[in-house]
Please model this.
Amino acid sequence: MTLIASAASVRYRGATAPAIDSIDFELRSGELVAVGGPNGSGKTSLLRALLGLVPLAAGQVSLDDVPIMNWSRRALASAVAALPQREEPAFPLTVHEAVLLGRWAQLGPIAPVRAIDELEIAQAMARCDLTGLEQRGIDTLSGGEWQRVRVARALVASPRFLLLDEPTAALDVRHEMALFELLRGLVAEGLGVLVITHQLNLAARYADRLVLLSHGRVAAQGRAQDVLRADLISSVFGWPVAITTWGDGSPQVVPLRHGESPRATGSPNPEPR
Model:
C-alpha cells in the first residue's frame, strides 16, 4: 500500500505564496519517514493534503492508486490514522473513552463496544504507557499524558498508515524515546509511518528517510547522511550548526552559539559537511 503526493500544491485564501509548492512525496508500507523544516515551511500543510483535508491548487494525492478525495471518510479513517499538532478536548471524557474514539471507523456511531475493541484499547494504552489511567479524566492529565492518549487513540484504529504531527511535543526524554521505539516497532509490523518532527537527531537515528522542507518545497530528501549536512541545515534554518556522528553512524546536529566555530563544540569528531 502506498500514499503518494504528485506535484501537490496548497494555497490558502489570502496567502501570497503556496503553503506547499509542487511537492512529490511517497510513503510506503513498512517504512518510517520523518519530515522536518522550519516553522511555516509547509510540514502541517503536507500532512493535511495527504489526508484530503485541504483542496489542492495543483497535483494529486492518492492512496493505493485511488485519488484521496474518492475515498469515503470512514474508509479513509480505517486505512490512515492521524495525530494533529493541536487539539482541545470538546467533552470531559475519561482516558478510556478518549482512546475508544479511535475505533469509530470500525464501530460506526451507535454500535456497542465489542470484546475485540476492548482488547485493542488495552493494547494501545499499554504501548503508550497509559495502563492504570483508564478512568482518569482527560482534563486532569499533564500535557505529556494527553499527548500519549492521542497517540493511543490513533493506534487503536489499527490503520495501515500513521501520520503524526509533532508527536513528541510535551514529552519527556523517556517518553520521546519510547515513542520512537514504538514507531520503529510498528514499522517492523508493516505500518507506514510519517512523523513531522523538530527532533532532527532522533529522526536521524530512527527514520528510514528524511524529508526537509523549506518555503513549501522539498529542500532535500533521502538518507539522514545525505540530508543532515551542515551547510544545508544552516541555510534552511537560518542558524549555524555543526554535524557530528553518533556511534551508530547517524549524523547529529549541534546548533552553534554566535561566533562559535565547529571545533568549539566539544565533539571528538565534528564533521562540518
